[in-house]
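Deviation from plan, reported transparently: flavin mononucleotide complex.
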Amino acid sequence: MIPSEMEPLQVYNILSAAVQPRPIAFVSTVGSDGIANLAPFSFFMLGGSNPPSLMISPTLNRNLSEKDTLANIRETGEFVVNTVHREMVDGMNRTSAALPRNEDEWEVSGFNRLPSSIVSPSRVAESLVSLECKLFQVVDHGQFAGSARYIIGEIVAIHIQSQAFANGAIISENLRLVSRMGGPDYLDTATLDYFQLPRP
Ligand SMILES: Cc1cc2nc3c(=O)[nH]c(=O)nc-3n(C[C@H](O)[C@H](O)[C@H](O)COP(=O)(O)O)c2cc1C
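Because the crystal trials were delayed, the predicted structure below was used instead.
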């Protein structure tokens, strides 16, 4: 199959089902107007550890506008990546709706805020791990709906809740992270249960 000869939606469906399971970055940002935003991204990966860095890609919207998360990060240069476990999926999913930029998505999510130590956006109190990030670079690739906007962030602070941390290390099974599979499918890495979450 040659992607350039296919319908963009089919390319998305095939690639997002082929590259799985994908971790979920639940990203907290604030705009220069002070309005806070939360949104999940599974085009997400760790990039390095010295200096520690990661990548998320909010793709261009159908009307070619940039997602609020990206707009906020361009404005302020800061964001927090929070992890998602099974009990958090409904609140996380609600924030993936296309909401107006001036709507505070914390209210929609039902999650609680904790202050970050270095960056301005709050971290999610329910998440077992939160990574405070400062923008290193945005790489624009393409000018179409679905084109990548690679946000590379340097991780400047790490928060781990005590139930997931012992003797200087993370207890992986206690994180109970949820992964994104193809379409509406998710995997609970604690139980290896598949479940579905229709988009709002
Ligand atoms: C689990 C999950 C993963 C998602 N991953 C991505 C992604 O990697 N890139 C993307 O552009 N949108 C992704 N979305 C959709 C965004 O969350 C959605 O477009 C959201 O409205 C963006 O919010 P914002 O405009 O407030 O930044 C995902 C949605 C869900 C539920």
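The helical segments are 8-18, 68-76, 89-94, 105-109, 172-175. We consider this an acceptable substitute for the interim report.
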